[in-house]
Design a protein that fits this description.
heterodimer, A: alpha+beta, 3 strands, about 30% helix, B: mainly alpha, 19 helices, transcription (chain B), RNA_pol_sigma_r3/r4-like (chain B), RNA_pol_sigma70_r2 (chain B)
Chain lengths: ~120, ~425
């Protein structure tokens, strides 16, 4: 599994051309992996500001805005769900047993390939 | 294997007819629906190679009935009696069944699939399967979820309908209007799911717009005198007409005012415009009709600068009165800015600040950015575009918003955040 970490706001610092190149390179890698059959799955995640974090406080789940930004925890795995609302996703995250033992579950929207024409 | 379009169209048209006949004979919507799915799959495999049988509907009925009896036989103890009854039934439709009642069956099925006990996503899944004749795999692909997830959704939806005791037949008169509204909403959801998919790997989802239009036509046929059914069909046609123009190479979204209008589908525009122009003469206006009317006004302008903005503003005000919601206010602000200038639009947007329904919604920031840009406030516009880019979960939208922000930053290299 490849986990991609980047600096907040780095995309905004790039020029239009650099951004276009970046997306082009990503597309090339994804095409290559699809064709070689190595691609299992993956998704870009939405901005961290769209994140909720569920954390155990006194053995009970508490929901906070934003991601958990300390580095002492490691990314231990992920579950992808397709829910009607964000509340439902947070509810599932709140039931995750790791939370009781000091673990964190970050709830983040996955980017889509669709959009309205504005 | 790919089913040829002609066979696929035929199967989709026959699916609700065969299911309707089967459920009328045997009841048990869930078991009948499974049996019809299997019959459709068998046909999709055999017909392209062996040719379409002379009586395709009878063929599907025979195969589905056989599957149904097999299924019932395997549940022997409980199902003996039903299996005996089913086996005695002639597979060919009797003369009394081969009547225009098929149209009513489609309507009845739509009402059943949009049962209030189901969540919207289950209503959508069941409608596409039972009325649209799509396989679970096709629906799953269109909604970008694993097939097992979609199968579970369909099966739970059928259990819920069973548990709710829903019968095959028209809903009671006092529930009919509400149920029809749910059906229209589900068809609109299906349409939007297909329409918002921009390009590239999502061609499957563009098929959803075609399916939504087909189902809206199927609903319009028995209900030509319902203004909102007509309005929804017109709205879909007028919106779909813009599809070829709304995304550039690489899936980048093209806003309405920058689209190449020669790419708009003239036939769809004509049909949609005629439908809505006619409907508004005899029906009290409803939200779908007003939205269709707005789309028709956009469509009649050969160039963006020819757009009749005062008329669009008036229509948004009607819509805000009929179905007030913050998204309508956003669009009204755009129209107001075109008529009275950007600061009037920005004033109207301010009424949405603190509206919890809009909290963190990127569309508010995107519209504000657009109006600030028109007003000439580049730094504020850039910030608002970036806010909007951070708030969207759509990749093409994020790229569009980032490029708008970047365009404004070009003249101001020190302005990077």
């Amino acid at each position: 599994m490849l986990m991609i970490y980047n600096r907040p706001g780095f995309l905004e610092e790039l020029t239009e051309q650099e951004r276009t190149e970046l997306f082009g390179e990503v597309e090339a890698i994804m095409t290559e992996l699809s064709e070689s059959g190595e691609l299992v799955g993956g998704a870009a995640l939405a901005d961290p500001s769209l994140t909720k974090t569920v954390v155990g406080r006194d053995g009970r789940p508490a929901v906070t805005d934003g991601p958990f930004l300390e580095a002492k925890e490691h990314f231990a795995g992920y579950v992808s769900v397709d829910c009607e609302t964000e509340e439902r996703a947070v509810e599932i995250a709140s039931r995750w047993p790791d939370v009781k033992y000091g673990g964190y579950v970050e709830v983040r929207a996955v980017m889509q390939d669709s959009g309205t024409e504005m | 294997m790919r089913t040829p379009p002609a066979v696929e169209d035929l199967l989709r048209a026959l699916a609700p007819q065969v299911l309707g006949t089967l459920v009328r004979r045997h009841g048990a919507f869930d078991a009948c629906e499974d049996a019809v799915q299997e019959a459709l799959l068998a046909a999709a495999v055999q017909w392209p190679g062996e040719g379409v049988p002379e009586n395709p509907r009878g063929w599907l009925l025979t195969v589905a009935t056989r599957r149904l009896t097999d299924q019932w036989r395997s549940e022997r103890a409980r199902r003996d009696r039903e299996a005996a009854v089913a086996a005695e039934e002639p597979a060919e439709p009797g003369p009394e069944e081969d009547r225009p009642g098929d149209r009513d069956d489609t309507l009845t099925l739509l009402f059943l699939c949009c049962h209030p006990a189901l969540s919207p996503s289950s209503q959508v899944a069941l409608t596409l399967r039972a009325v649209g004749g799509l396989t679970t795999a096709q629906i799953a692909r269109a909604f970008l979820v694993p097939e097992a997830t979609m199968a579970q959704r369909v099966s739970r939806a059928k259990q819920k309908i069973k548990a709710a005791g829903a019968r095959f037949g028209s809903p009671p008169p006092d529930e009919r209007d509400e149920r029809l509204r749910a059906v229209l909403h589900v068809l609109y959801l299906i349409f939007n799911e297909g329409y918002t998919a921009s390009s590239g790997p999502d061609l499957q989802r563009a098929d959803l717009t075609a399916e939504a239009i087909r189902l809206a036509r199927a609903l319009h046929r028995p209900l030509p005198g319902d203004g909102e059914v007509t309005g929804l069909l017109a709205l879909m046609l007028l919106t779909d007409a813009r599809r070829a123009a709304r995304a550039a190479d690489g899936g980048l979204l093209v806003p309405l005012t920058e689209q190449d209008r020669t790419l708009w589908d003239a036939e769809e525009i004509q049909e949609g415009t005629e439908l809505i122009t006619d409907a508004l003469t005899w029906s009290p206006p409803g939200p779908y009709q007003v939205q269709a009317a707005i789309a028709a006004v956009h469509a009649e302008a050969a160039r963006p600068q020819d757009t009749d903005w005062p008329q669009i503003l008036a229509l948004y005000r009607v819509l805000a009165h009929l179905a007030p919601n913050p998204m309508v206010t956003l669009n009204e602000a755009v129209a107001l800015a075109m008529v009275d200038g950007p600061s009037a639009g920005l004033d109207l947007l301010r009424t949405l600040d603190g509206d919890t329904r809009m909290e963190g919604h990127h569309r508010l920031a995107a519209v504000r950015a657009h109006l600030l840009e028109t007003a000439g406030d580049a730094p504020a516009a850039r910030e608002a575009y970036r806010d909007a880019a951070r708030g969207t979960t759509s990749l093409p939208e994020r790229r569009y918003l980032e490029s708008r922000a970047a365009r404004l930053a070009d003249g101001d290299p020190g302005g990077k955040v």
